[in-house]
Amino acid sequence: MVDYGSDTAYQLQLVQLVQEYPQIQYIECPVQGQLWHKCRAINMALQQTTTPYFIVGDIDLIFAPDFIKKATELAKPDTVHYFQYGFLSQQESFLNKDFNSYQIAFKGNEEVTGTTLFPTVKLKELRGYDEFYHGWGAEDTDVHIRMKNAGLKVIFYDKEILLKHQWHPKVYRSKQSTHPFHSLLERINHVYMLQTQSTKRTVVNQNQDWGKIALLSDYEILTKVDYVLQLKATVLEVNAVLAQMANFRDELIYLEITAVSGVEKVKNQLKIIVGKKYQPVYDMDTVNNLLLETIIKQYRNNPYDYSFNRQKNIIQFKMYFQS
């Protein structure tokens, strides 16, 4: 069981519960100040797996009592199976019934790819789920595409409903939230997936470790800052520090980036009008997206903590740059 950055109060309760089930191997990741990274969490479990088959499933499902039995019957070393969902209504989801008594509102189609049975060896050969994907969107379909590209059969099992999806409210990000969020990430994920398909990708995560466990001991070092860089959201300062990151080794860097003031922006406009040199600037959303993209592409395994206060227009980011 991998807890990837739940609220600490929830993690404490979960630790107490897991102690009642000694057969469960529990991995707790102290990554509360990071982008959600489902693929890394899955790959952590995959790296520990020694069984011939590996099942990925969503947390909001009710499984048929014979699901594992059926999955075992279907399992083949050259085939991937994924399973049709039956979606429950809000009212039905609040009832306490046995699996067969739940009445589904509608069935999912083959585009719902959340629960999949993989041959473990084949999934490991492709280096697991692609850890480029952060946030939500496309990672499940991506791994199906790569399995097909590698010559495996990918079969949608819809002969019976073995999984019932519980209704739950959508969680919307509050405007007051300081949690890391990239405004275009879901759309980038989708285009990235299409490129995986068109270029027939199979093996991923080739330039960085995959399924790397986020250890508490690695994150405790985030309290020991080596350098503090206080920057304005100018093109020059931001681009320079993004390039400078490649030079940091075994150092904890703290960045604080604030918006350029309205007065400075007016001065810039006047300089442009009279043809003088001016200071090109970024808006804070652009700075945020650039920083998060850099983390995703180059430094996602490093211990880090990130926040963007949109009310105060300030980004605070610290990372331990490992050698």
TrEMBL record:
Domain of life: Bacteria
Pfam families in the record: Glyco_transf_7C, Glycos_transf_2
Glycosyltransferase 2-like domain ranges (all copies): 5-89
Residues in coiled coil: none
Protein name, per record: Galactosyltransferase C-terminal domain-containing protein
Keywords (A to Z) from UniProt: Transferase
One example GO MF annotation: transferase activity
Gene3D superfamilies reported in the protein's UniProt record: Spore Coat Polysaccharide Biosynthesis Protein SpsA, Chain A
Annotated Galactosyltransferase C-terminal domain residues: 99-160
